[in-house]
Amino acid sequence: MRVKVLIPKLQGTVQAPPSKSFMQRVCALALLNRGSTLVRNPGVSQDDLAALDIIQSMGARIDYDQENHSLRIASDGCTQWSGMLNARESGLAARMFIPLAALSNQEVTITGEGTLLKRSMQWLMDVLPELNVQVNSLNGLLPMSVKGPLLPKSLTVDASQSSQYISGLIMALAYTTHEPVQLRLFNIVSLSYLQLTIRLMKHFGYVLDWNGENEIIIQPLQHCTENKQVEVDIEGDWSAAAALLVAGAIGGRVSLAGLTYPSVQGDAAVLSVLQDAGAQVEILQNKITVSHAGTLQAFNYHAEHTPDVFPVLAVLALYAQGTSYISGVSRLWNKESNRANAVQALVKALGGTAEIREDVMHIRGPVSVNEVHMHSFHDHRIVMAAAIASAGSNTQVTIDDAQAVEKSYPHFFKDISKLGAQVLIT
Questions:
Q1: What confidence score (pLDDT) does residue 98 get?
Q2: How many Å apart are CA 248 and CA 338, to the nearest integer?
């Protein structure tokens, strides 16, 4: 799908899409819950649908209520299941559900699609055998087969690759342990998403003692796990919202409803960056508004824990006076694309410069071209960043393979059209 975007000015209000990070974790916990889980404001992105397909394959029953925009997930827990699971292109689904699949004493194979098949899962091959799990894969890539049962014990693990691995590991340990186990972590990244996992697990009744840093004590389940009824509201997605909020800062006035603030989602930090850069930010109980308020200033941001906002903040930097510095480049290598190279290509195409020095990208504008033709690199974050790049100029942006945005925000082009963007889809 090729999309041409021209944004004279964005103005108006749209609803933030449901958080896929929130939704997929809820799907996993609902599978483990021996009872039913009512999910309000469920996600409909490709990654969300992948998680729903996986839990259905593993025995969960899903009843959709379109009228009330909710669904109910009934489950008997993670049973002794065998077969094939398809994570599609969702790195979170693959990394989180592989440890849960390893709870079975039968062989389960997890595969994926597109760029996910090129993303390393070696961490699982290194860690799961310590828990009695047989793991088979070619060079640490999907498809990967696991066979348990996973036997819990205390571990010390490197958490520098992704918090998504840790989320799946904690869930598997908590579900199956009959005595306290200690998980010690070092080199933690994406800390806020680990906090999200722990918060949701506690909501489902798990008992975890966390020192807030590198040690988690996982307690055995003390509550009755039969016929447990859980209700969850899925928050709006700050990772997706960041693109529209940046668009408001560089050229317009954009309001998003459905966001929770403060939020355990780390990407809510985009508001602080926008304020530091000189945008006008208004925070109300049911609406967040960001407006262009004159000349934007260069900024420094540490994106080690929030790499998903890196591409849109790179676009923000192009409209700021001076050189902006965004650290955490090393977190961009194993994404849907080689995201560091993709961001550099986008910045260069728009007429700016982006140099990488050690783990920091130095970005300087301004946008100085009338027309840009970009490939998405099969990366939904690059699609959104490229599309909003014309919000502060008269640049027309053409994006090839723009359907990649459906991975996280299927209504993105519809929403920016509502806000005033000229969008042509061919």
A1: 98
A2: 27
Q: Where are the domains of the chain?
A: 3-17+236-425, 20-233
Q: What are phi and psi of 307, to 5 degrees?
A: -65, -20
For 20-233, CATH gives 3.65.10.10
Which CATH superfamily, name and number, covers 3-17+236-425? Enolpyruvate transferase domain (3.65.10.10)
CA atoms within 13 A on the CB side of 78: 26
Q: Tell me, rounded to whole angstroms, the distance of Cα 180 from its chain centroid.
A: 30
The alpha-helical segments, DSSP class H, found in 252-368 are: 270-277, 310-318, 339-349
Question: Tokens 């510095």 sit at which residue?
Answer: 325
Query: At residue 314, does pLDDT exceed 80?
Result: yes
DSSP notation for 186-216 = ES--SHHHHHHHHHHHHHTT--EEE-SSSEE
| Dihedral of the alpha carbons of 76, 81, 83, 84, in degrees to the nearest 10 | 50
| Confidence check: pLDDT of 227 > 70 | no
Q: What's the whole-number mean pLDDT along residues 285-302?
A: 95
Q: What 3-state DSSP class applies to 180? A: coil
The string of pLDDT tens digits covering residues 379-397 is 999 999 999 999 988 899 9
